[in-house]
Amino acid sequence: MSNENSIYCHDCQKVAKRVARIRLVADYTGKPIPNKAYTVLKGEAIVTQGVSDGNGVSSEEILTTIPLFVEISPRFPVRKEGVKFFKQHRYDNLTLNRSTKSLAECKPYLDKIYGKVVDVPILTAECLWHRYQKEAEEIVGQGGELIADPIVRNKRINQTYAKIWLKDNRFQWAGLAAFASKQVGCGLLNFSDTVENMEGDVVAKSRAMVSAAKVGVHSALPLFSPFMSTFSGTTFIQDIDKAIQDGKASIAASKKNKVTEVSKYIQIATVSGAVTVEGATYATFKRSFNMMGIGNATLFLDVYPLHAFYHQRGLKELEACLRDRKNIYGHSQFPILWPIGQDKLEFGLPFKEILPAFKAIDEGKLADGVRHLADHEQKNILEAIMYSDWWLVGALWGNQVFHTLGDTSITQPVELPLAAQCKSTNDGRTIEFTNGILDGLTSRLSNVENRMEFVYKAATRFDEMLRGDERRVIAESLKEIASNGGVK
């Protein structure tokens, strides 16, 4: 390895047989590790100890031809074998805070400031976070960007959550998240269909108006009709027929656009009221569709690496490394996919709910683990992304109110079926957000207390089913979601 101060080494093999200073660098990025205490080991025997300077370089020269390894603090037991669960990586068998190769394997170079130097790659906490973050990005992204279609992304997220629980039942939150994320996908599908119908209505009306106007010109100015027919390539009769067909298509498109019916109830008392309401509704639906997709993806990019890290490295390493996660953001050569602005939600913050969640999982207190992760999911992540967006808050509240009042044309019930499909079930697997008309008109998903009551109720029911005879039904539903994403 080399750096910007390197000069040509005429006889590297000969140089390698002598002593050199070591430069501590992070294995993943190659960034120097400055001002860090280190220990050089031969086997388990200490050869020497020291502290790197501001450039990560040792003050002493070290013999680099023997199989010495370097460790930085804190020290962890040498890993004997990797854990086969999430995507496999060369880091899985390597020890945290230890060099990923011996000094004898590292190539020396001559530095204009330090003389002979050997860069020693260390497996740091940041290396591991990069590894798990990139694994999450590969599921929801492509080429450093989110997969464009939120519904396609959502299905991949649902599948991954379900697979995590199926492979390790301790991750009970992931199982519940598969159902909850599936329901987000159902909402995305509803928003998408509604927006598509609204756009289709606008296009059909425009086409019908153009066709009708053309026939009107034919009728009002018959002398110009031959010239128009020559110019357009169609006859008066053909234009009349097209106007009729476009009119029928416009009527059909208008019937599909259920927002037109809903807008009658909230129409502003002006001549242009309906247009104003429909335009605002369209913008709200479009914005809400995008924000739900962003929230779904951002939550996944936050929690998937936490699960992967804990499962493959253990609780002690997670505890030691959690605060370093935020440091991998902002590296120009190794960018992190984070769909939301740092001003809205900073990447990788070590929220207080995270470690208690995985400690509970480690102790077998799975329901407690779900509760801690639910707090993290709702209060730290989704509250900042989704429930602070007044467009989405308004759309969710409008959906709830209209559905409570009985208009189900474009609305959906606020509920969580613990099943693979979108529709509610009649077998005790559906958890409802509200109970009765008054509750439906006063409770709001954007209210964190109302929302957490709903989430805890779902978590409790999920835990009951897993502990009872219904566990098989839950497992079958999660297998189906793992197979097809569950949004249908």
UniProtKB/TrEMBL annotation:
One Pfam family, short name: DUF2515
This protein's name: Lipase
